Amino acid sequence: MQIFIAENSGFCFGVKNAIQNSEKALKSGIKTISTGDIIHNPQEVDRLMKMGLVVNKTPEEVQVDTNLIIRAHGESLDKKEEYIKLGYTLVDCTCPVLLAIYKQMQKAEEDGYTIVIIGNKDHPEIKAMAGHLKNKPIIVNSKEEAKKIKNLENLFVVSQTTNIYEKFFELSDIIEGSNTNVLIKNTICNATKNRQQATIELSKKVDAMVVIGGRTSSNTNKLFELSKKHCKNTFMIETIDDLSLQEVCKYNRIGITAGASTPAWIIEEVVQVMDNYSKDEFMEQVEGSITKIYPKDVVKGSVIYVTDSEVMVNIGYTSDGIIKQDELSNDPDVKPRDLFTEGQEVEVYVIKLDDGEGNVVLSTRRVEGLKNWRKLVEISENDGTVEATITKEVKGGLLATVFDINAFIPGSQVATTYVKDLSPYVGQTLECKIINVDEKKRRLVLSRRAVEEEELQKQIDKAWENIEVGKVIEGRVERLTDFGAFVDIGGVDGLIHISDISWKRIQHPSDVLKVGDEIEVKILRANRERNRISLGLKQLTKKPFEEFMENNKEGDIVKGEVVNLLDFGAFVRLKEGVEGLVHVSQISYEHVEKPSDELNIGDEIEVKILEISPETKRIALSIKETKEKPESKPRPEPKKRVQKPKKEKAPEYENQELEHNLGEIIEAKLDENSEDVEE
Predict the structure, then answer these.
(1) Residue 216 pLDDT more than 90?
(2) What is the pLDDT of residues 325-375, one digit of tens each?
(3) Beta bridge pairs of residue 139
(4) What's residue 666's pLDDT?
(5) H/E element holding 140?
(6) Does 632 score more than 80 pLDDT?
(7) Are strands 310-314 and 298-306 parallel, antiparallel or unpaired?
(8) Can 657 be counted among the known catalytic residues?
(9) Angle between helix 218-230 and 190-203 (nearest 10)
(10) Cβ neighbours for 281, distance < 8 A, ≥ 6 positions apart
(11) Hey, is 236 helix, strand or coil?
(12) What whole-number distance in Å separates Cα of residue 654 and Cα of residue 77?
């Protein structure tokens, strides 16, 4: 095995400058932070953190001296000003190449040019470049985006420093051809150019290439793309731990290149380990690494390559495994390249050990299915819920899918109430409980009703926390019956008995309430065990007799309605709802045999309050007292009797004077009583 290292591998000048300045700041003894990775290499950032670097993406106002490192990718002017206001001392590790680009763009902008940047708009370098301009630049990263820039004048085109040369010139040519006065400035770093060219030349000469660098590093990814074009067997790693020595040692001539953010110690480690890896050691490890596998096993593997119809996977067996199109996913339209990339680690299900061509037949679709069944079992054991998509109405219930697994919801488990027509549920997604799961029989039975009952119970429990006898709460009238009204008071129903709706006599609750009314009620009684709550509405208003006492006094004349007639008198309902009695003797100054001779139920009349008894809550009323008392009619003169000759003295009266006196007594008695006296 021969190892070749590409020229210009590893740290560029800008990265080296950032690392040196960061180390100097850390050795100063002053607390030092950065707002992100100083460079795109996690191993080097970890090394700096062990020296004391603090990575804080949201810096706050500081109380003591603190350094803040501006990363090699640069930072916008606004951010720099913000950090200074917070009290930080800036350690600017911006790449000198970028600082020069900032000045070129600013000068072009002052000269009236619109700035166009070719690069990834989400890359921190591009964000920093845009943050040094007064106006928002145009950022493009594809031919489609470049073609949209048309009919503009005075464009100044620059590039992300780690761009691929071919890409930059291709996009800048498109922009130049569709616009007027386009000034193109190649700002790709020379170190990037040299590194890319060296990688291309080396990849053409070797059997395999190893690209070392952080996976988030733009220039490292560009090197991988370029190397892949010329050498199919290209591996991208961050450290030696990511490299499959068994795989790479199959090749005789191996090239190594590294991104601009890759420290020399990582490159040296990779070279040293590969160089010390002898052929004998390789064969021993290969033999020891062969895994025993059997059909229906689930094993891990690494994607070797991906085509339009299949994926080849290294599973550590004597033969590689193959995943055909129909075993990729439950989605028949998905393409292998949509799911997998070379080098990706995957879990696969072993279908059979030989497809007739020496390959192990694998499936990722079935792995997903097995995982989903295990997930369902776990959810069921933990009394959890699943999201079920209803696909079809069938006899006895609904069909649904959960994690691409078919499930059944019996009709009795769809809701807490009987549902006659289940068709409206088709297409809906319902949260359900698992009531039966059997992986072997592929049986999954769900219940929506259990979820609703649980939610209802939680609602009831929460509502009962607010239930307190004597408390006044708001509610909504849900339904009316002959005996009362049911009111929802926050998840639980209470009953207002008809006798507690109004102080007045009512025939039906609908005389006062209607469904949907928002009302305040008082809790009269509550029984948690029986889940019963008695409510009162009339209790929130004054008692009719108390209101009557406040509004009236003895001697007042008021209006009322005749509500009942008995032999001894008439009951009259007054405005406040109380009833008073008009005794038969108080109906008229003239003799009344019975009240019904003078009054009818429903008559509106005026009455005078004769007496109010607070102790017995009785009210005596009078009709006749509201009228003027008629004058007494004079009695006719008694007829004079003709004096006849005395035969003998009458025994009853001795003389006329006695008769006259008796007449006066009777007349006086008539005036004293209000009723006629029969002689």
Answers:
(1) no
(2) 888 887 777 888 888 888 888 888 888 888 877 788 998 888 877 888 888
(3) 117
(4) 42
(5) strand 138-140
(6) no
(7) antiparallel
(8) no
(9) 30
(10) none
(11) strand
(12) 142
**DSSP codes of every residue in 524-591:** EEEETTTTEEEEESGGGS--HHHHHHHH--TT-EEEEEEEEEETTEEEEEETTS-EEEEEGGGS-SS-
Q: Which amino acid is at 155?
A: L
List of residues 6+ apart from 244 with CB closer than 8 A: 235, 302, 314
CB 568: neighbour CB atoms within 10 A? 10
Cβ proximity of 71 and 14 under 8 Å: no
Q: CA 505 → CA 148, 525, 601, distances in Å?
A: 81, 22, 15
- The 10 Å CB-count burial string (b at 16+, else e) for 404-420 is ebebbbebebbeeeeee
pTM here is 0.39
What strand order describes the sheet that includes 208-212? 2-5, 253-258, 208-212, 234-237
Q: Which amino acid is at 178?
A: S
Q: What pLDDT, on a 0 to 100 scale, did the predictor assign at position 10?
A: 72
Which tens digit of pLDDT belongs to each residue from 55-69? Answer: 877 788 777 788 889
Q: What are the two backbone dihedrals, phi and then psi, of residue 634, each rounded to the nearest 5 degrees?
A: -65, 140
Q: Do residues 123 and 72 touch, judged by C-beta distance below 8 A?
A: no
CA 487 to CA 126: how far, in whole Å? 63
> How far is Cα 334 from Cα 323, in angstroms, rounded to an integer?
13
Given a contact cutoff of 8 angstroms between Cβ atoms, the answer to whether 598 and 587 are in contact is yes
Query: Which neighbouring-strand residues pair with 70?
Result: 92
The predicted-structure confidence for 364-385, as pLDDT tens digits, reads as follows: 888 877 888 888 988 988 889 9
| DSSP one-letter code for 524 | E
Q: Which helix (H) or strand (E) holds 592?
A: none
> In whole angstroms, what is the distance from residue 484 CA to residue 500 CA?
8
Terminus-to-terminus CA distance in the chain, angstroms? 154
Which two structure tokens, joined as six digits, stand for 373? 């069944």
Beta-sheet pairing, 385-394 with 397-402: antiparallel
Question: Which helix (H) or strand (E) segment is 638 a member of?
Answer: none
State how far the Cα of 393 lies from the Cα of 628, in Å rounded to an integer. 84
How many Cα atoms sit within 13 Å of 287 on the Cβ side? 5
User: Which range, 142-146, 161-165, 350-354, 549-553, is most confident?
Assistant: 142-146
CB 10 within 8 A of CB 26: no
The H-or-E segment that residue 404 falls in is: none
Find tokens 């601009």 and name the residue: 260
Average pLDDT, the chain: 84
Catalytic residue among 125, 238, 327, 576: 125
Question: What's the token pair of residue 543?
Answer: 């008692």
> What is the identity of the amino acid at 421?
D
Tokens linked to 386: 């699943």
